[in-house]
Structure formats: C-alpha cells, structure tokens
Amino acid sequence: MKNTRLCIQFVSVAIFSLQLMFPVVALEKPDLMLAKVFHPSVDITKYWISEKLDGVRARWDGRQLVSRGGTIFKTPKWFVQGFPDQLLDGELWIARGEYQQTVSIVRKQTPHEGWRKIKFMVFDLPAHSGEFSSRVIAMRKLNNRSKSSYLDFIQQFRVSSKQMLMWHFYEVIEHGGEGLMLHHQKSIYQSGRSNDLLKFKPYDDTEAVVIGYRPGKGKFSGKMGALKVRMTNGKEFFIAVVFHIKNGKIHRQ
User: Of 136, 179, 206, 229, whose CB neighbour count within 10 A is largest?
Assistant: First the structure.
C-alpha cells in the first residue's frame, strides 16, 4: 500500500512537471479566417479598415483563450472575468513594438501578474452569421456592454479613396505600427485564407530582391519610375517609386 501511494505521488509530480514544461493543447485547432496580401486593384470603398496589430493571434471560445496552433493560454481568472460566452477572434497585445514582450508573457504555462499588461483586442465574431458590416455593429454593442479592463475591440473605419488609405497607412507605420487590415463589407466568416480579408504592410527587404527598374514617364522622365523586385517564391513585379512636387521641383518620398 505504501509503495502504491508513493507511485501515485510520483506520477502526480511527473504530470505536473510535464504541464509546466509543455503547453496545454486544446482538442482541435480553431478554424481561423486568414488574410491574403493587399493588392492596389481592390475597390477600397467596399472594405472596413483597421490597424494590423503586432500581437499574438487568439480565439476566445467562451471559456478560454486558444492560440492559432491549438494551445490553451494559461490566463489568470481575473483576466477573462466578464468576457462574453461567445466566440471572439482577436490579438493578445500590449502596444506597438512590444511583440516580443507579449510572447514572453502569454507563453508561460502558469498564470502570472504579467497578464496585467495584456489586452485581448477583438476584430471579428466567428459565430456571427451576418456580413462583416453587421459584425462591426455587433462588436460595437459588445464593446459598449463590456466592463472588462482586459477586453477591447479594434477600431473599424472606412475610407473614400486610396489617398486616404495611404494616409492612414503611413500614419500607422510612422508611429511604429505594422500596417493595416482590410475586411470586405459583405464578407461572411470562413476558415482559411480569403480575398475578403487583406493585410497591407511594408515589404521587408528580406522578402524581395531588387533586380531592375523601370524609368519614369512624362514629368518624371529621367527619374526612376518603379523598382522591379523578385520574391523568395520567384514572383516578380514592380513597386512604384513615389514622388511629390514642391516649389516646382520633383522630390522622391
């Protein structure tokens, strides 16, 4: 009997140790809607715009927060207190430029005080059957009712021109943000990558190699008009070089 008790105690300690060493995994990975890359040809007046946060993707399933890969985040009880009993898609986020600190906090396998720096920033309602415009209204209602200090909803807004889109894009980038997300107004939530959800972020110089250029035309004659780049997947395309005119002179931005 004594040996049996010792064996049970040993197994219990071993299981507890494994729980600390390895993440707790949910029964299945959440079916998330994923973004494709923004292309200038889209009609941006049909899209809702929001900032692309540099956080950790998460799904609230009504009881717990689950990662994109199916890992259950070990949140303190006070962190999720007051969260609604419905599916929420969002990002665990601290602030612009704080991705590494966010990861360091949320990957720990025991609840801790570091979560007080985190907010769950919601950008979609997976179980809502309506179009995205209807989901935006529903999210705003949830936001108005929420009393949680750790639950927030990402601002969704519209733009009437590509010039306005670019203004918001550069505003986010200049202040340390990642870029923008575009969500089609009539989009129905679906798992996998979709043309209804687009990410607009600067090209990283590790993602493309400059292999040539195209000369400018008209008043930009004699200047570089566009760079020809090749992606790591072999795809080649041109990126326009942006100029502005000041005091009658042409300047590159």
Answer: 136
Looking at the structure, do residues 213 and 130 belong to the same domain, yes or no? Answer: no
pLDDT in tens, 88-144: 999 999 999 999 999 999 999 999 999 999 999 999 999 999 999 999 999 999 999
Helix (H) or strand (E) run with residue 15 in it:
helix 2-21
Residue 25: CA atoms inside 13 Å, Cβ hemisphere, count? 8
Eight-class DSSP state of 25: B
pLDDT tens per residue, range 149-185? 999 999 999 999 999 999 999 999 999 999 999 999 9
Q: Among residues 161, 183, 200, which one ends one of the domains?
A: 200
Please indicate, yes or no, if residue 215 is contained in any of the structural domains: yes
Helix (H, G, I), strand (E, B) or coil at 141: helix
The pair of structure tokens assigned to 16 is 């507890």
**Is 123 among the domain residues?**
yes
